[in-house]
User: Fold this.
Amino acid sequence: MPKPLYNIQKLSNKLLKRLHSSKIYRMNKTLLTLLLSVFSLPILAQNSVWVNEQLQKMTLDEKIGQLFMVAAYSNKDENHYQKIDKLVKDQKIGGLIFFQGTAQKQAELTNRYQKLAQTPLLIAIDGEWGLAMRLKNTTRFPRQLALGAIKNDTLIYKMGVEIGKQCKRMGIHMNLAPVADVNNNLNNPVINDRSFGEDKYNVANKSIAYMEGMRSQNILACAKHFPGHGDTDKDSHKTLPIINHTAQRLNDIELYPFIRLIEANIGAVMTAHLSVPALDNSLLKSTDANSPTTPASVSNPIVNGLLKQQLGFKGLIITDALNMRGVSDFFAAGDLDLKAYLAGNDILLFPGDVPKAINKIKQAVENGFIAIEDLDNRVAKILSAKQFAGLNNYQPIALTNLDKDLNNIEAELLLNELYENAITLVKNNKNILPINNVANTNIACLTIGGKSTNTFKQTLSKYTQLSHFYIEKDAPQAKYDKMLEYLATYNHVIIDVHDMSRYASKNFGFNSKILNFLQCIEELSNTSLALFGSPYSLSKFDGFNTVVVAYEDNEITQSQTAQMIFGALPFKGKLPVSTSYYYNYADGVTTKTNGRLSYGLAESVGINSKAFYKIDSIANQAILIGAAPGCQILIAKKGKVIFEKAYGYHTSTKKRQVKTTDIYDIASITKIAATLPSLMQMHDEGKWSTQTALSNLLPLTQNSNKANLQIGDILTHQARLKSWIPFYTRENFQNIYKTEKSINCNIMVGNNMYMPNNYVDTLFSMILESDLRDKHGYRYSDLGYYLLFKAVENDKQQAFENFVESNFYKPLGMTLTSYKPINKYGLNNIVPSEKDTYFRNQLLHGHVHDMGAAMLGGVSGHAGLFSNANDLAKLMQLYLNDGFYAGKRYFKQGTVNFFASQYSPISRRGLGFDKPETDPDKTSPCSENTPVNVFGHTGFTGTCAWADPDNDLIYIFLSNRVYPTMNNKKLLRENIRTNIQEVIYETLNTYPVKTKTP
Assistant:
């Protein structure tokens, strides 16, 4: 251990004693301050008039009272509050440390106690992971072990800033954080995940970042637990741990973060209730094996000798709580406080008996055992800390909007960012994560412990269809055996484990059945194990190929881990501890995003989510006026879904609320969601160009007036085709349909309504025989898409519905997108469309609304597709990604842009895509401020899907505005879809996201 050249503390005390009695002190306090600054006495060097005035007017009892920081609670009764009142008024205590309660009550009590205090109280909190460590309903930041997995220490600084802001808002001046212990003992029951980990450099760097963040807000940080509580398997709350390392080892490991923090001017250090013989000379000299063991917190060689003199620490020294058995078992109340003071501590935390302790210290002063100059020095340090916190200009806490201010969006945004950078893909030996290919992967998800339905499962299901299983931790062996049989049939099993324990003594929450079961699953299939708990539990899983550690179990970690498993978010974390030869410090596989949609806060992409209340208002008003019974709305920006909500009910009977997983008849969005991607692929294959004649793709048109229609003209609705043909009104059509299905009559157009198979040919004959309009120009028409989807079938030699499902929907994970959904999904998940009183005479529930598509069996190129907003967003993101999604390229670079650009001056449209109207005299399908490069489509049933490449933005709106009748035009008249779109553009760039941290 390096020794100082001279004892600066002794020299300073001698100077102080002489100068206090000199004329210089009385004549020129400023000169004294400057003189003492030369000798590195920073507390007096920082003294102001306020500090000296407070000190001079204090009585001996008042000075001694400043040394005590008493425990206060905001969840107790008036009797407790009055006891604190009495300590503040009668004993003139210097500070309070608040424990359990609520923010509002603590703030009220703080104001109450401060009003009683003669000298403003120094308010502290033990808030290692923020106020939530002690106060309900406040932001709970990650524990330090999770933060230890983060590579970017700037994020730790940002957390320190935010916690500092919240402390300041609460009238708190000192946070007893960071924990600077190097936790290198897996069995540590008290530090454990409160440490940044086992690497001294990582612990030091992150401790400094945390401290500097709080200091930027004038919040005093306190490094703990000196000289290092990391390597013990005992809890100092219950007993006295003994650290038997050599001085060299302690200096090299345990003390390193504290030395670095002292160099960085940490404001306070907490001394620990540990026995450290190598650092305590009195213990080293003892020859009696039965002699009392001196805790470091009351050890003169460790506090005065090591911390103050050798390490040169000049800030506040605070004991760990004096009611902890690691120290209270050895000394009586009062004697303990005196001993802690004599060892060198400035603040005595959580004393057992304040009046008795004050008397003990007062007697020591009066008997000359404690020099008054030394006491003045200690009190001056405390007062200087109070000045640093602004207590020389004390203001009561403003109680208005307190909870709102503490639970702010900046904190939530930072919290998400911290977890996103911490979650660690520890092993990925088979490279099965992230999962890119979901088309041909049979995936199961098994949840062990926790709830059977959780955010992790729900988020996984946003990406693909999975089989979900659940088993209780204490389930009988037979159930585990049966589960093993089920899972053996899958080629990828994702297992998420919950209700884990922090403690090795509790086997981290695993029993032998679970561990044996997991080992069997690992041997049977590709298994991805997600542990929502301590990384120390990895010691149970040596040899596993794919393991993710999420560190903590909450909705954020569950959602983000699921997104990372599917590649929507990257894995970034690095293991902060070693658990065995197989899992070592800094292990962690980093990945890149694969272009899939992620899910998160609007503020993360620069949008103020508060502005979305207007969307809620518009949607609810639309339902109120009967524009539609319900709807889904989704907004994504920069590849992140930032708004996804369901409103209202399936029908006006209000029996079933709309969920985001419900599916709607999307009507003409089918054109860009089925026909267009098929044609894009064929275009990339060189099968056609915009000038290609239809007959080249569809020979059945050769002898018709449709033969020479160019594909480009058809896609842009300028091929002179009629708008539509009302096939269902053909004379005597009712004689066509049967109520029962047969071999020759099996085209289902509704419930108990079947059309002869050969009648499909009649429909196409009607299209081929229809006249073309004489006038060239733009007219919207469905007829071309009847023919184009047949052209795709002709080219692919495959049923259209099967082709789009296998080539697009399955690979994209669009598991809720389908033709004829009644054959795949339960009716409870399908939103009805119209009460048909003119054709099928029934409620259209699971059957396509469009009559022509229905007469084709529910499959056509212009209508027939059902989907939900989330699925459609995947397709629109594919388009925004220029044909790339989830690690796969679907279209050549530039293809989407070619199709999405305005094709001709005749109309606003692209090839298949609709676009905003640029002619001010014409009605636009988009809002006024929508950029011209936006592309997408609307649907007759009350739907729209738009992609904006300029703003990397997606907007989806789905409704059944045709319920109860398609004559309901309120959605159109009230401009519901475009009004919502306008709100979206109003909110762009409304949130000042900081790109740089000071």
Summary: Residues 153-169 form the longest helix (17 residues). Residues 1-46, 287-292, 992-998 have pLDDT under 50 and may be disordered.
